[in-house]
Amino acid sequence: MTDRIALPTSLKRTVLSQALCAARDLPLVGVAGVAAVLSASIAASIPTDVALAPDAEKVLLAETLSTVIAVYAAVMAAIYGSFRYTIDRRVGVVAQRATVQPRGWALVGRIPFTALGGAAVGMAALLGARLALVPAFALLGLHARDVAATIVVAAAASLWGLGVGLLVQAHLPALFVAPISLSLAVMLAPVWPTFCEWLPLPTFLRAGGLDLSVLGLADGGVDQSLAALLASVWLVGVVVVGAGSFLRRDLR
């Protein structure tokens, strides 16, 4: 009976502590702000004469830009996911909570809030890009499918960053490893496009139905259904391995 009462109590405490942190999540504010500015700068770099192009061409360009914005959102969300854990560990918040909460439940409570933060980064990136596009595009090319895909990709990327942070532990190295490990496919795509289709970021993007041709990854052996499966495997794998490391290591 005691175990049955303690389990939901631990979960409730964990969710409450994470919710309180989310309410004053300064890393999220900073990363989301940077994501919005970066996306806006990319959108603003489009030549002004595009405003005179036919609507069909504008829609095509906006759809292509959606993939680029999703990539930037994913990279920034991965930084956020890693940053939020490693900074808590660095300042002793993780160790302090471990004295009053089981480690496992503390991690379970962290996962959904990390994903929500990543989704917020994705929304900030979208907002920055669309505001910059308004003078030339108005709302042309703004599709609910692409918006949802970018938000989901960013949420997944934040969980990737969390998994990397759990593994690397050290704050500064994790801030480099998380985005680089995710964006590696973009850097290697010109050389090994077929291989890169199977890496995390392309599977996240393709699972969301985004066009990868702008990244040099034409449709190959990985369709949307397979991409969704691979994305799930990548995510579950990195979080489970990171969680195993978290549960075994000394938090000091």
TrEMBL record:
Membrane-spanning ranges: 26-47, 59-83, 104-127, 147-168, 175-195, 226-247
Alphabetically ordered keywords of this record: Membrane, Transmembrane, Transmembrane helix
Record's protein name: ABC-2 type transport system permease protein
